[in-house]
C-alpha cells in the first residue's frame, strides 16, 4: 500500500513532500525528464539542470506535448481571468507554493486642501487609516494518471499516448479559476480571510434588471439600466474604463438586430449599442454567470487583479513501485477584489432577482463621510 505524502510541522512525509520541502516548494523538481544522454534533468530559469535524485520517466518531447495539450485546453476557459491579466492587472508572487496567504491593506483618503491667499492658514492635519486583510492562496488542482505500460506502448509502437485525461483536467482547473473570479464557486476561507469574486464580494454595488421575458422589457429598457449601472459606479468614485460581463441567457437579446425590435433604430445589434456607451470597452459573454446576471467591472488594479502564485502547470510522481505515473494539473490563480477603506468599489452586479448587499444608495466619500 502506498504511503501518503504530506508535510506536517515542517517535516516531510513521503517522496513528493520530501522533494517539495527540499527544493523550497519549487514545482520544477516534480517535472523531471530524460535527456538525450539518458540522464535526468529539470528545467529551471529556462535552463536544463541535471539532477541525480529524480525518477525521470517522460522524455522532454513527451513533456512538451503534455504541456501543449494542457495550455490549449485551459486558455478558452479563462476569459475573465485573461481580461485582467491581459491588461496587466495582476500581482505575481514568486514561488507562490511556499506561501499560503497574501496580506494587503486598504487605505482611507485624507481631507481636502485649504485655499488661502498667503498660505498661512492652518490646514487640517490628518493621516490615512488602514485596514489589514488576508487573502488565502489556495491551489486549484486536478489529477490523472497513466500506467508505465501505457507509456511503454506509446513509446515503442505506433499508438500515441491518449492525452484526453490531461485535457479534461486542464479544463477543470481553468474553470475553477474562472469561477473563483466570477464568484459563482463556493467562497474559500483560510487564515482569517476569504476569496471573493465579482458576484460574491459583500461590498459590490447591486442593481435590479428587468427580466427580458417580461412584456415590459425593450432593448431601450436594458440600455437605460446599464446606464444606471455606470452611474452607480461613478457615484462610488469609480469612473471606468469598464467591461460589461453578461450571462449566456442574454445572447439571444444582445445579438438581435435592433431594427427589428425598436422603432427608428440603426441597423446594429443591442450588443453594439451597449458597447458604444462611453467608458464601456467591451461586452463579453461568460459561460458561468448565472441566469440573467450582468457585471460591470472597472478594469483597474484598485478594483480587481489576479494574484498569480503559479501559472497552470503539470507535475508528476510515481507510485506502486513505479508502475503508475501520477500527474496533477494545478495553479495558484486567485482573484483579489478590492475596495477603499470605506468600502467603495467599481463592481456593479445586476440581476433580475434582488440580491442583498450594500444598498445602491449608500455612497461613501473617500475620506469616510457618508
Order of helices and strands: EEHEEEHHEEEEHHEEEHEHHEEEEE
The helix-and-strand class reads alpha+beta
Radius of gyration: 25 Å
- Kindly report the spatial arrangement of strands forming the biggest sheet: 12-18-15-13-14
The third-level CATH topology of the domain at 205-304 and 340-351 is hypothetical protein PF0899 fold
> What's the total helix number?
8
Termini separation comes to 63 Å
What does this structure look like?
- The protein is of the alpha+beta class.
- Among the domains are: 15-56, no CATH class; 205-304 and 340-351, 2-Layer Sandwich (hypothetical protein PF0899 fold), CATH 3.30.2320.10.
- 23% of the residues lie in helices and 28% in strands.
- The protein has helices at 15-22, 60-74, 79-86, 148-156, 164-182, 219-235, 251-254, 270-275; strands at residues 6-8, 11-13, 33-34, 40-44, 47-51, 90-92, 101-107, 130-136, 140-147, 188-190, 193-195, 205-208, 242-246, 280-285, 294-298, 304-319, 324-337, 347-351.
- The strands form 6 sheets. Strands 12-18-15-13-14 form a 5-stranded mixed β-sheet. The protein has a 4-stranded mixed β-sheet with strand order 6-16-17-9.
- Strand 4 and strand 5 (47-51) form a beta hairpin.
